[in-house]
Amino acid sequence: MPHSPTHKSRSRQRILASARELFSNYGFEATSIDAVMAHCGLTRGAFYAHFASKGALYREALGDGAVDAGPVGDVSEELDRWFHACQPRPDSLDTPSSAARFLVADIASGHPDVRAGYGPAFEALVQRLAEAAGDPTEDRAAALAAAAMALGAFAVASTVDDADLKSQLAATCRAQAERLLRRDDVGDERPTFFWSPDAPARPHARRMQ
């Protein structure tokens, strides 16, 4: 007897919920279809009734909805929410922390399906921070920098064991991100990086005598 459309929809949502949790915490490469299906209590055979591939599941589970954490708060609330993820705890899988872990876990992936899901999720984080700052258009540059700072802090915190260093890292980066978003002592001049088209040519290093 075929399953009803309601049953199929519920199964799909169970798969997506498990995939979002596992992909967020362990990344695309380390998460298998078998692991996702075992986590949600369904068989591997049921997977292909809903998704064509692991990549398709990833795109849907961690697209622009992965960073949906409810109404946008003020600058302090949003930064608290994201920098809270700098102290990873396996038993804390709330949406903001999970999204932050996903953005770090697959930050350098070259897989096309990962990149297709990553871009919209990162853009959603930037949009939230820009809205918290006041103007999604005017404050986009500051939001980009603050988002990169948040994810960078989490990435480094995930690779060190020193709890004091983790705390210092989170506190320092959060304070600087808040300065950017509140435009405290930040000028209008944009920084120039070595990859910028208008960056001055670097002088040749002197040869060792």
From TrEMBL:
Residues 32-51 bind DNA. The keyword Transcription applies. Residues 9-69 form the HTH tetR-type domain. PROSITE patterns: HTH_TETR_1, HTH_TETR_2. SUPFAM superfamilies: Homeodomain-like (SSF46689), Tetracyclin repressor-like, C-terminal domain (SSF48498). Pfam families: TetR_N. One of its GO terms (molecular function) is transcription cis-regulatory region binding. InterPro entries: DNA-bd_HTH_TetR-type_CS (IPR023772), Homeodomain-like_sf (IPR009057), HTH-type_TetR-like_transc_reg (IPR050109), HTH_TetR (IPR001647), Tet_transcr_reg_TetR-rel_C_sf (IPR036271). Gene3D superfamilies: Homeodomain-like (1.10.10.60), Tetracycline Repressor, domain 2 (1.10.357.10). It comes from the Bacteria. Keywords: DNA-binding, Repressor, Transcription, Transcription regulation. This is Transcriptional regulator, TetR family. It comes from Caldimonas brevitalea.
